């Protein structure tokens, strides 16, 4: 921008009262070389356009045009300022087009943090459906334990999370979207594998129980059961993730309880599970968002798809 204009701005001691309409009027007059043609291009009356240009020149403190009865010519200051004004308008138009693309889900980015079991068993089918509907939107999926999911949402690393609630947090909103019942898991040759009816917590009292670490969402839920057997409340073996737990189960080191979504795939069929009752236990899976903050249009669409899909049927129907 010309130094004369900058000096004028500084001399005023305040911000310039310049609008987008002023820039559009200046560029139109400069490009058309005529107030009449510029007014027609902008769908304005010529007196209204003249008022806008007078305001603009007064605000900048320089004359931008030399006017005669026959033609309109740029002054030196006007000629120097024209490329800047054209670039500013182009930047504004580009920015508006980008925002409209984001609003229409033609482009954008969605970040989601979720539990590993959900990332593996639920998200592939839902992301496939979302990408089919909105191919211009990229999805970034991060997996973590329950405490990690909450932390990523709180730190604004992702748009939202999908997990069980690890701990209360006044900065986060938890919207329960489904419940995931717990089952007893053990090797197929384990005594508890016999039968298909529900087992009680008391049935686990004399078993070697394999527990998950306190920073998972599963451990606090298990500990919420009243009169929990001592071997379950203080397990002899404790691990921090489901993959390690599967290895311990396969090796015959004991039994555990897990939500259905977290059950090992166990391609070789070495493990089995039975319902758990007396009392039954389930984890609430929640969409976790920052309280008081709205989602972007793309993130809102993915959130809506997830909620609708989880409400439409049992866990086993969520893979496609």
Automatic annotation (TrEMBL):
PROSITE patterns: HTH_LYSR. Residues 18-75 form the HTH lysR-type domain. Keywords: DNA-binding, Transcription, Transcription regulation. It comes from the Bacteria. The keyword Transmembrane helix does not apply. Pfam families: HTH_1, LysR_substrate. Belongs to the LysR transcriptional regulatory family. This is HTH lysR-type domain-containing protein. The lineage of its organism: Bacteria, Pseudomonadati, Pseudomonadota, Alphaproteobacteria, Rhodospirillales.
């Amino acid at each position: 921008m010309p130094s004369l204009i900058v000096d004028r701005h500084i001399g005023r001691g305040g911000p310039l009262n310049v609008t987008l309409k002023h820039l559009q009027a200046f560029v139109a007059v400069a490009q058309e070389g005529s107030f009449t043609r510029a007014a027609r291009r902008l769908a304005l009356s010529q007196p209204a356009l003249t008022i806008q240009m007078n305001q603009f020149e007064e605000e900048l403190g320089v004359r931008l045009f030399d006017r005669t009865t026959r033609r309109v010519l740029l002054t030196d200051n006007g000629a120097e300022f024209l490329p800047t004004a054209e670039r500013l308008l182009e930047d504004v138009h580009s920015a508006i087009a980008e925002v409209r693309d984001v609003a229409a889900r033609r482009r954008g980015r969605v970040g989601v943090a979720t539990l590993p079991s959900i990332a593996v068993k639920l998200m592939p089918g839902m992301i496939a459906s979302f990408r089919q509907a909105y191919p211009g939107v990229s999805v970034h999926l991060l997996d973590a334990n329950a405490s990690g999911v909450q932390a990523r949402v709180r730190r604004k690393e992702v748009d939202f999370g999908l997990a069980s609630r690890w701990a209360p947090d006044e900065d986060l909103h938890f919207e329960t979207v489904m419940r995931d019942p717990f089952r007893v898991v053990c090797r197929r040759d384990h005594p508890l594998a016999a039968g298909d009816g529900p087992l009680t917590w008391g049935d686990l009292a004399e078993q070697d129980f394999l527990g998950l670490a306190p920073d998972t969402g599963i451990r606090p839920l298990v500990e919420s059961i009243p009169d929990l057997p001592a071997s379950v409340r203080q397990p002899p073996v404790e691990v921090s993730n489901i993959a390690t737990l599967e290895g311990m189960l396969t090796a015959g080191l004991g039994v555990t309880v897990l939500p259905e979504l977290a059950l090992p795939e166990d391609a070789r069929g070495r493990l089995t599970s039975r319902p758990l009752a007396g009392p039954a236990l389930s984890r609430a899976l929640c969409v976790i968002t920052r309280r008081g903050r709205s989602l972007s249009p793309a993130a809102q669409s993915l959130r809506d798809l997830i909620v609708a899909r989880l409400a439409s049927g049992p866990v086993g129907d969520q893979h496609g």
